[in-house]
Amino acid sequence: MEHFSDLIKNRRSMRKFTSEELTQEEVVNLLKAALMSPSSKRNNPWQFIVVDDKETLAKLAHCKEHGANFIADAALAVVVAADPLVSDVWIEDASVASIMIQLQAEDLGLGSCWVQVRERFAATGMTSDEYVHGVLDIPLQLQVLSIIAIGHKGMERKPFNEENLQWEKIHINKYGSK
């Protein structure tokens, strides 16, 4: 991408992927973006579990009752977790890291989709966080925020239409100003 504005306009959630694998260079670039993510007081409370094993991806696809099946078809999933004992704003720090991974994916021409794990449930009634902990042997102190599914785009999506911007959501100097 030549301009950041193009990157954010073109980044759309991708839930359909081709079977093409990612290159080592693509994976390294994605992980660099994660590790360079800003965090409060540079505490870096996040941890990233990178999954490319097809069996494990298929298991992770069941982390939620709805909205996670496409993980099984992704070339890669990055599980974003953080330690609440390291930072009281671990949710925000892990969220920023999650979107940095997605923006890097788009810049590489890859598709991605955020799968919300925190405060969600698997079909069994177990929390999604517990389910992912069990699949990946994640230490108890870490909380899982999201899974970012990544792969080569399996369909075309139109860029975000700027005509649909909700300018009424912008307030100048105080809420409700015009």
- Cα-atom radius of gyration: 17 Å
Query: How would a crystallographer describe the biggest sheet?
Result: 4 strands, antiparallel
What is the general shape?
globular
- Oligomer state of the chains in this structure: single chain
Strand order of the largest sheet: 1-2-4-3
Distance between the termini: 34 Å
Helical coverage, percent range: 25-40%
Strand content: 15-25%
Listing every helix as H and every strand as E from the N terminus to the C terminus, the arrangement reads HHEHEHEHE
Tell me the number of strands.
4
List the uncertain runs: none
Please, how many helices?
A: 5
- Structural class designation: alpha+beta
Tags for this model:
178 residues; four-stranded antiparallel beta sheet; 30% helix
Task: Describe what you observe in this structure.
Helix 2 packs antiparallel against helix 4. The protein has a four-stranded antiparallel sheet, sandwiched between helices. The longest helix is centred in the middle third of the chain and has 18 residues, at 90-107. It is α+β, with helices and mostly antiparallel strands and 178 residues long. The chain has helices spanning 4-10, 24-35, 54-60, 90-107, 128-136; strands at 46-51, 76-82, 110-116, 143-152. It is 30% helix and 17% strand. It is globular and about 50 Å long.
Short description:
30% of the residues lie in helices and 17% in strands. The protein contains five helices and four strands; from the N terminus they run ααβαβαβαβ.
Task: Describe how the helices and strands are arranged.
Elements (H helix, E strand, L loop, with lengths): L3 H7 L13 H12 L10 E6 L2 H7 L15 E7 L7 H18 L2 E7 L11 H9 L6 E10 L26
Antiparallel strand pairs: 1-2, 2-4, 3-4
Helix pairs in contact: 2-4
